[in-house]
Structures are given as structure tokens and as C-alpha cells.
Design a protein that fits this description.
Elements: E1 4-15, E2 22-33, E3 37-41, H1 48-55, E4 63-68, E5 71-72, H2 78-87, E6 89-92, H3 104-114, H4 121-127, H5 143-156, E7 161-165, H6 173-190, E8 193-198, E9 209-214, E10 217-223
Parallel strand pairs: 3-8, 3-9, 6-7, 7-8
Antiparallel strand pairs: 1-2, 1-4, 4-5, 9-10
The protein binds adenosine-5'-diphosphate and magnesium ion (MG).
Magnesium ion binds at residues 48-49.
Length: 235
């Protein structure tokens, strides 16, 4: 686990203004090392999605600083943020966000329109276990399979950072486990940094690093001494 790859310094995020203002994050500081699997855990409304959206360049902060690999993301202008989202970040969401009228293959091929040196879509789909389902449309796939397509689409860009917001939130227990195992496996194989948001504290066992979020700030951050393969975690 190397030096800090991601660094949050006293990040504050206030939505709205005046009487309607909501302070979603305050004094949020932490680091994440390159190649780590980091699980961010906390109750609903704690500020997890806000934090991930700021890290992924989908939202801007009110004060504080965010760095990725010594580039200050919080100082990027709109154009730089767009490049950053396209080139550096892979996103995986709870509800997959696939294009319904494109096949699995075509959804993953979208990556080649975003970055120049994307991985071949058939290869990545095979890698996530969907070699036989490439010609299917999202509606012809199960929830777990659709999430695999979404992961393949993110991986095809070869992102330096994969961000997953409640990736198993819409899946049953066994399927959710398979998806988390896939993420753990991909991180290990490719040395890819993966940040996973969850409200399920049992999942912290799979992480190299755990960051607990409560009431808009970091309640604790720790390294896991005994990382557990997802297959062995029960919840
Ligand atoms: N776009 C927004 N406008 C106003 N308030 C928001 C917005 N997004 C999130 N919030 C508020 O910020 C707080 C943190 O939300 P969020 O980051 O989504 O938490 P979590 O992902 O941990 O459930 C909540 O009080 C939420 O209502
Ligand atoms: Mg959320």
C-alpha cells in the first residue's frame, strides 16, 4: 500500500444557501493508497455519495482540497473536470445505468468513444463472466449480469480509480457477493484503486482500508490487518 494516492483535506460541502442550506460534509480528511480497496461505510444521509461525487469530479466542494496523485482535483475548471471524469474515473452505480437499447457489448464499446486506448469490449465482458451474453440487451439480463456489464464498461476505460456507490444495493445476497468478489478480484489483478460505498458494515472485512462516515465527517479511518476474501464474509 503506497503513499497517498487520494487525499481529502478538510473538505466541506454545503448544498443550497440561506435557510435551506444543508451541510453535507465538513472537516472531511483522509487518504487512500494506490491499489487499495477502500470501503466507505456509514448510515443513510451521512454524506457518502456527496464525498464520492466530489472525488469523481461530478460535484464541486465548498471549501477544502482534494488531490489525486498530486493533481488538485478541487482546483480543476469545468473542462479539466470533464477530462478527469472521462479518463481517470470509472463509475459503478446502484442501478447500473446501462443504455437500454444497446446490447451488453455495445454498452461496453461506449468506452472506446470516451478514451483512445480502451480495452476490447469482448475481452472485458469475458473477464467479468459474460462471454456468452454479449449480444443480450440489458432487459434480457439479470440484475447481477447488468451490474457486470456496468463494471465491464467502467473497466474498459482502464480507469486509475474505480468508484462504486452501493454497487450491490439492488441485488440479492448471493448476487451481491459475486459482484463484490469480482471487484476485489479486479483490483488485485490490475492493481486498481477501488472505492466502494456501503451502509453494510460487514463489508468492511473485504477492504484494505475502512473509512467510517457519520454526520458529514470522518468518524474513523483504519487499515485492515486481515483482509477477508468476499466469499468468506457473511452478513
Ligand atoms: N443535491 C442536494 N441538494 C441538497 N441536499 C443534498 C443534495 N444531495 C445530498 N443532500 C443532502 O446531503 C446529506 C448527505 O447526503 P448523501 O451524500 O446522499 O448521503 P449518503 O450517500 O451517505 O446517504 C443528506 O442530508 C442529503 O439530504
Ligand atoms: Mg448515498
Amino acid at each position: 500500500m503506497g503513499e497517498a494516492f487520494i487525499r481529502f483535506e478538510n473538505v466541506e460541502k454545503i448544498y443550497g444557501s440561506g435557510e435551506g442550506a444543508v451541510r453535507a460534509l465538513h472537516d472531511a480528511s483522509f487518504t487512500i493508497g494506490k491499489g487499495e480497496i477502500c470501503v466507505i461505510v456509514g448510515p443513510s444521509g451521512a454524506g457518502k455519495t456527496t464525498l464520492l461525487n466530489i472525488l469523481g469530479g461530478m460535484d464541486t466542494l465548498t471549501s477544502g482540497r482534494v488531490f489525486l496523485n498530486d493533481r488538485e482535483v478541487s482546483a480543476f475548471d469545468r473542462r479539466q473536470l470533464a477530462d478527469y471524469r472521462r479518463r481517470d474515473i470509472g463509475f459503478v452505480f446502484q442501478f447500473y445505468n446501462l443504455i437500454p437499447n444497446l446490447t451488453a457489448l455495445e454498452n461496453v464499446e461506449l468506452a472506446s468513444q470516451i478514451v483512445r486506448d480502451s480495452l476490447p469490449a469482448p475481452q472485458v465482458l469475458t473477464d467479468v463472466g459474460l462471454g456468452e451474453r454479449m449480444r443480450n440487451f440489458p432487459a434480457q439480463l439479470s440484475g447481477g449480469e447488468q451490474q457486470r456489464v456496468a463494471i465491464a464498461r467502467a473497466l474498459a476505460k482502464k480507469p486509475s480509480l474505480l468508484l462504486c456507490d452501493e454497487p450491490t444495493g439492488a441485488l440479492d445476497y448471493a448476487t451481491g457477493k459475486q459482484i463484490l468478489a469480482l471487484l476485489q478480484d479486479q483490483s488485485r489483478k490490475n492493481g486498481m484503486t477501488v472505492v466502494i460505498i456501503t451502509h453494510n458494515s460487514a463489508l468492511t472485512a473485504m477492504a484494505d482500508r475502512v473509512i467510517g462516515i457519520r454526520n458529514g465527517t470522518v468518524a474513523y479511518a483504519r487499515l485492515n490487518e486481515h483482509v477477508t476474501p468476499v466469499e468468506e464474509i457473511e452478513w
